[in-house]
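Reopening this ticket.

The earlier resolution said the output was attached, but the attachment link was broken on my side. Pasting everything inline this time so it's all in one place.
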Amino acid sequence: MKQRKLANEILKFSSLSAIDTARLALEAVEALGSLAGGKGRGELVLLLRRVVREGVKAVQQAEQTVSFAEAAWASVEARAELRPTSRRDLRHYVRRMLRVEGVGELPLRGMSTKQCRHILGTAFNGSAHSFKKGRAILSSVFSYGMRQEWCDTNPVLRIEVPRVQEKHIAPLSAEEVKRLHKAAERPEHRAMRLSLRLMLYGGIRPAEVSRLQPGDFCWEEGHVLIRPRTSKTGGGRLVPLRSMQGIRAHERTIPRNWQRRWQALRRAAGFRHGSWMPDVCRHSFASYHAAHFKNLPALQLEMGHRDLTLLRSRYVSPVGAHEGRLYWDERTT
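Inline output:
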């Protein structure tokens, strides 16, 4: 009787009754199973106290989180250093993931590897390249969430990275290069002559060319500086200015509306929608450079690659020495 009275005195500070407490204690003992079996009263009380402490901690952590949608958009906004085009690309991938039904409302802390795999498989089904990029972005959301203490682990790290089979890109033929040069000589396309040569004879990516400023060119020393803010990979490099004969001083600029002008030049050269491979000028530069100059380390530096692996596996196609000489013969440009 005294123990019951004491129990009621203790419980009067909560809305629980002695019966409620007994039931909860019994559920905990049953759930612990063999961990609680055979223990005396004192040991069992200590074990239940530990269960309560750990349970309280888990509940508090579960409350200290945000939804996946909130975390995803917050991680995007935190990437202020990205270029506008990169941020636009990042938002596009986040939107695709949030289109998966029910995903936006999920608490970040409670998300599992299985759920993350479902998000990636649904949002990027059919494209190994998109799946791989989506995986990297999803992982960055959890990494950001961990820094904000919205979650404790990154479940995406347990998802295997798919192997992406890069599509072979054949270099432009001599006839195709000639067509591009001929189109660039037309009055309406002459503003793109410099850009075309930077891509064909410098291996500079189209997006990098479009961002070049007058101060990036050193015509006296014969090179152009691809600054980190301009580069796709964020690393700077010096690229020699080759095959620039006939480019007058007033033509040494990158025109406005560059993407529209570049598309118009390709159409004028006879390349229709679907017949032009992205970065084919860069692939052509690499293949013909390797065939003519036979200096892969120098080519690696100009391309901005960390090592020769990517150069050998993706960029350099077998090209004859004769074709290489014709490509770099200034009389043909």
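Reporter confirms the inline version is readable. The domain at 174-332 is CATH 1.10.443.10 (hpI Integrase; Chain A). The first strand starts at residue 217 and ends at 218.
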